[in-house]
Specification:
The chain has 168 residues and is mainly alpha-helical. It has one domain. Helix content is 79%, strand content 10%. It has 4 helices and 3 strands, in the order ααβββαα. The protein has a 3-stranded antiparallel sheet with strand order 1-2-3. A hairpin with a 4-residue loop joins β1 and β2. The longest helix is centred in the N-terminal third of the chain and has 101 residues. The chain is rod-shaped and about 155 Å long.
Length: 168
């Protein structure tokens, strides 16, 4: 191509170059707009994900706290019941010890035998109870004045007084 031909094509070349630059500028501006829109959408989605994660975290924490509270409540109740049982067992032991000491007196044994004969009749069979006291039997009826039975009835007779030990 000659210089003249090149000079003649210069305006065409300049126009094509200007058009290409303008098109590139429009493409670049459109890419920036698309990039900005995509970035805004990504930020909004990230905020939504973070909000959802925070909400789920709070819900999980609340559930975990509730479970821990329930576990602590059950543990406290078990400790309370163990303490109540210990108090009751101690009371029962003390009453049993006191009854056994009282029943060790021979005069008291004679009174227990007399009580059984009064209840069941003179022909009642009277035996020493394991641990002290006596039991009697006649005509299919049994009277238990053994230490364990009498102590148990004594504690049971305390009824509301014993239950009041662990009332709120």
């Amino acid at each position: 191509m000659t210089v003249q031909q090149q000079d003649a094509l210069a305006p065409v070349r300049a126009a094509l170059l200007a058009r290409a630059r303008a098109q590139a500028g429009r493409e670049l501006a459109a890419a920036h707009l698309d990039g900005d829109a995509l970035l805004a959408t990504a930020r909004a989605e990230a905020r939504s994900i973070l909000d959802l994660a925070a909400e789920e975290g709070r819900a999980d924490a609340a559930s975990s706290i509730a479970a821990e509270h329930e576990k602590a409540r059950r543990t406290a109740r078990a400790l309370e019941q163990a303490a109540q049982r210990e108090i009751y067992d101690d009371l029962r032991h003390r009453v049993t010890t006191a009854v056994a000491r009282a029943f060790a007196d021979p005069v008291r044994r004679d009174r227990l035998v007399a009580m059984i004969r009064t209840e069941l009749g003179a022909g009642a069979t009277v035996r020493d109870a394991p641990g002290g006291g006596v039991t009697g039997e006649a005509a299919g009826r049994v009277v238990d004045l053994g230490v364990e039975a009498v102590a148990g009835r004594a504690v049971d007779a305390l009824g509301d007084g014993v239950r009041a030990l662990w009332a709120p």
